[in-house]
Amino acid sequence: MYQQMIFVNLPVSDVDVSKKFFTELGYTINPQFSTDDNACVVISDTIVAMMLSKQRYADFTKKEIVDATRSSEVLLCLSAESREKVDELVDAAIDAGGSASGETQDQGFMYGRAFDDPDGHTWEVVWMDPAAVQG
Fold first, then answer.
1. Do β-strands 122-128 and 110-116 pair in parallel, antiparallel, or remain unpaired?
2. Mean pLDDT, the chain, as a whole number?
3. This prediction's pTM
4. Which DSSP category does 77 fall into?
């Protein structure tokens, strides 16, 4: 059965810093699709984040590249299997050189926190009670 994938492309200041950051979070780098100008970060079987040097990113757009430390264009959100996994991932991101972003959201059936990666891209991590999803 076909599973649709998402490839998130993000401009970064230093590809090596991004590789180090995301591997410290437990993700892998696919060397087949990585070069000095980009890192292919495998988040899951269906989610891949391409960390492109700003020069390489510019090859794909004629638009101005946003400085994510000053402006926001996208909020990336990853699911987590438990509240504890939310905390583990966000704490690992902060320990790896990221920074906390926003306030913890705890609505009982849903729990989330967020971090900014070294380039300022905001990643939300959210757990939702499976019973709430089922209705």
1. antiparallel
2. 96
3. 0.91
4. E
